[in-house]
């Protein structure tokens, strides 16, 4: 399982602590330094069954700077993948990729 996080994100730090406390093994990946590729994201979105818009970190500074709240509505699936793969800070975190795709920390209980 891959745990994608941003080390300066307080929610990511809490998520990592939760994983460690539950002895869940993972490969750690910095979502900014090693941003997911377009193909990785395509696979994860399709595997998750979630709308691609759920993969955007709507509370991120970058999301607001780019004015994506309105722009995203008219973008194609591929345009959204291009955008997400351009900057890890646009991706909702933390992100777990394994048998399940889990976005955000609140859903971790699904793993145990």
TrEMBL record:
CDD domains: ArsC_like
Organism placement in taxonomy: Bacteria, Bacillati, Bacillota, Bacillota incertae sedis, Candidatus Coprosoma
Pfam families, per database record: ArsC (PF03960)
Family matches, as InterPro entries: Arsenate_reductase-like, Thioredoxin-like_sf, Tscrpt_reg_Spx/MgsR
Annotated organism of origin: Candidatus Coprosoma intestinipullorum
Bilayer-crossing regions: none
Family: Belongs to the ArsC family.
Name of the protein in question: Arsenate reductase family protein
Domain of life per record: Bacteria
């Amino acid at each position: 399982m891959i745990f994608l996080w941003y080390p300066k994100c307080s929610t990511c730090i809490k998520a990592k602590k939760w994983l460690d406390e539950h002895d869940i093994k993972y490969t750690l990946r910095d979502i900014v330094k090693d941003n997911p590729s377009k193909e990785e994201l395509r696979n994860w979105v399709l595997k998750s069954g979630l709308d691609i818009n759920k993969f955007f970190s709507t509370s991120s500074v970058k999301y607001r700077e780019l004015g994506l709240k309105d722009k995203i509505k008219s973008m194609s699936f591929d345009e959204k993948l291009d955008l997400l793969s351009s900057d890890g800070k646009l991706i909702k975190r933390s992100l777990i990729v394994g048998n399940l795709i889990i976005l955000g920390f609140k859903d971790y209980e699904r793993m145990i």
